[in-house]
Design goal:
about 350 residues, six-stranded mixed beta sheet, 8 helices, single chain, binds adenosine-2'-5'-diphosphate, globular, alpha/beta
Length: about 350
């Protein structure tokens, strides 16, 4: 008989948590029992899974008896506090927060890039899911790095509000509706109005002048690619888009790669779809990336300002490939090769 697993989802009422349930269902993950967990605020709520409404339980240290896999997307604090309890109870944790990503004993995994690192899950019983903007970038960088060795990456992001969570999705909707109705807008999630605006401020500012989101892209890229020599500099920007992060990526490579070569390499790369036909106004956009799992890349062109430079435009669904799908893909490899 095929094996089945007891799966807990911490943060099951949130934007990513709900998508995790949907991905488990869509990809026919062999779930014996699903346990949705959230805070006390969600007591009495249910979440849909395989045609049923499952009652939400309160996340606590004792939530993980008999659990094989615990997918966490309930914020860094909850992950720090409860992932060790889940691991101690014998579950393998796949954590979508930033709490464990840079821990040397925790693998940071994008299945298309470094699936072999999953083997290290035994050190702490935790596998980290990278930052959403980093995931879609490294899916595209990896095949180019293998072909031409990337020396430096300059990236600017255009990130959807869903990356902040369900409340930010509601804030953008409310502001757009209020502005058209000449009513006052609410600002609870962001410091500034996000409707018809954008701001270069994602996560908190650090002493070095960068935001934490920008430094995640720098540090996580090196760790996932397994190459400390790749230099990355990032500017991360929140834009009034609901779903789908976009990135303008400038690369300097050791070996010259023509745009045609890059296009050929990327067309064969796992998890990537080349959408690059400017003559027909075809290039990746969040509206097309949302609701599917491929990372779209286009506007592939030479950077004439340096010897070996390329420019790319990379778009993916931040809640799916940037979070939930990537976590479920990790779980699939884990049960196939390790559990
Ligand atoms: P709740 O809705 O009960 O607060 P999002 O990223 O969309 O904001 O969702 C965050 C998810 O994480 C929600 O399911 C939320 O549950 C959950 N969550 C946040 N903080 C905690 C906590 N301290 N304990 C358990 N779940 C939490």
């Amino acid at each position: 008989m095929a094996r089945e697993f007891t799966v807990a989802v911490a943060g099951a009422t949130g934007a990513v948590g709900r998508q995790m349930l949907q991905c488990l269902e869509e990809r026919r993950f062999p779930v014996r029992r699903l346990i949705p967990l959230a805070s006390e605020r969600s007591l009495g709520l249910t979440v849909p899974f395989r045609g049923k409404e499952l009652p939400v339980e309160v996340l606590g240290p004792d939530s993980f008896q008999g659990v094989d896999l615990a997918l966490f997307s309930a914020g860094g604090g909850a992950s720090k506090d409860y992932a060790p309890h889940a691991a101690a109870a014998g579950a393998v944790v796949i954590d979508n927060s930033s709490a464990w990503r840079m821990d040397p004993d925790v693998p940071l995994v994008v299945p298309e890039v470094n699936p072999g690192d999953i083997a290290d899950y035994q050190k702490k019983g935790i596998i980290a899911n990278p930052n959403c903007s980093t995931i879609q970038m490294v899916v595209v960088l990896k095949p180019i790095h293998d072909a031409a060795r990337i020396k430096r990456v300059v990236v600017s992001t255009y990130q959807a509000v869903s990356g902040t969570g369900q409340k930010a999705v509601e804030e953008l909707s409310q502001q757009v509706r209020a502005l058209f109705a000449c009513q006052s807008i609410e600002k609870k999630v962001y410091h500034h109005r996000i409707a018809f605006n954008c701001f270069p401020h994602i996560d908190v500012f650090l002493e070095n002048g960068y935001t934490r989101e920008e430094m995640k892209m720098v540090l996580e890229t090196k760790k996932i690619m397994g190459d400390e020599s790749i230099e990355v500099t990032a500017t991360t920007v929140r834009v009034p888009v609901f779903y789908g992060h976009s990135e303008a990526v400038n690369l300097e490579t050791e070996r010259k790669l023509t745009p045609e070569e890059a296009r050929r390499i990327l067309a064969r790369a796992p998890g990537v779809k080349v959408v690059d036909n400017p003559a027909k106004n075809e290039y990746p956009m969040p509206l097309d990336a949302a609701g599917q799992d491929l990372t779209l890349v286009g506007r592939i062109r030479e950077d004439f300002s340096i010897k070996n430079g390329l420019n790319l435009w990379v778009v993916a669904d931040n809640i799916r490939k940037g979070a939930a799908t990537n976590a479920v893909q990790i779980a699939e490899i884990l049960i196939r090769d390790y559990l």
